[in-house]
Structures are given as C-alpha cells and as structure tokens.
Please model this.
Amino acid sequence: MVFSRIFKMLVMAGRIHMPRQPDNFRGFRDEPPPRVIMQPGSGALPPHPSALEEELELQHRDMQRFLAENRHMIDENVMLERELSAVKDEMHRLSQVIPKMLANNEAQVREYIDRGMKLEADLRSTEPLRLEVIQLRAEAQKLSTSQKELSAQVLSLTKDTNRLQTENKQLSAMKTDIDGIDKELAEARYGVETFSPKKR
Model:
C-alpha cells in the first residue's frame, strides 16, 4: 500500500512516465488492439502472445526504472536526512555556544567600560598634578634661562677679573719702577744737598 502511494506520487511529480497509451489501448503497445477475451462459446479470440510479451517487457522496464529512481530518491532522502541532522546538531551547538559568547562579549564590554571610567576618574584626579607639573616645567625653563644668563655673566666677570689681574700685575711692576725711581731721586737729592756749599 505504501509502495502504491509512492508510485502515484512519483507519477504525479513527473518522476515516472507511464507508457504511452493510444485511445483504444487495452493493455498492448504497437499492435492492433486485442480482442476482448470472452467466455468460451462467445466467439472472441485470446490476445496475441507477442503483444503480451512486449507489454510485459515494457512494464518490466518501467518498473526497473521506477525502482532505480526510487532507490535514488531514497539515497537522496538519506543524504538529506543526514545533512538535516548535521544542521540540527550544529544549530544546537550554536544555540549553546552563542549565549556564552554573547555573555563573554558583554562581560568584556562592561570591563572595558569600567576601565575607561576608572581611567577617566584617574585623569580627573591627576589634573591638579598635571597643572603643577606644567607649572614646574615652566619654572624649570625660566631657571634654565636664568642659569644661562648667569653663566654668561660669570664668564664675562671671569674675563674682567683676568683682565684686572693682568692690569694689576702691570701696575705692581710700574709701582716697583716708580718706587725705584723715587729712591734714586731721594738719594740724588741727598747727595746734592750734601755736597753743595752752604750759604753764609
């Protein structure tokens, strides 16, 4: 009964083509229609054996083709059922994995948000320190500039000191010469006064 339903479904779906039948077909192909088999004494002749054999051969071929197509459909059905089972298994696996992935992603997002808020709070708390660092850098820059100016002044003063020391040495030598000249003049004056005649 199941086989009959499958056969009818295949015929309706066009998978099985029934043998062509002429308008006056009565179970034979490419032969004149057989006479109706009547009861003995009715005058009707039995069908031709070759016609019966050919018709049986055609029906056998159709049945073989039908069986082959049926086996092919069964194989396809088995493959589809396997693929469907694999898809169901994959969907079941994904239905278990996806929520975990979403939960992990949500946890990571919350963690990143918390870290961002913490960093923002840290930045706000360190804002006064940042301003103080900027101020200290500005003061350090000023001190560096002042140090450079002082270094230039010290260098200039060092040059002036060296020049004054050199001049002082020269003045000391000149003073020594002057002292020697004064001494010689004093001795000369004393000699002149000693040997000059006294007034009467």
Observations:
- Helices lie at 2-13, 49-125, 127-195.
- Confidence is low (pLDDT under 50) at residues 15-42.
- The longest helix spans residues 49-125.
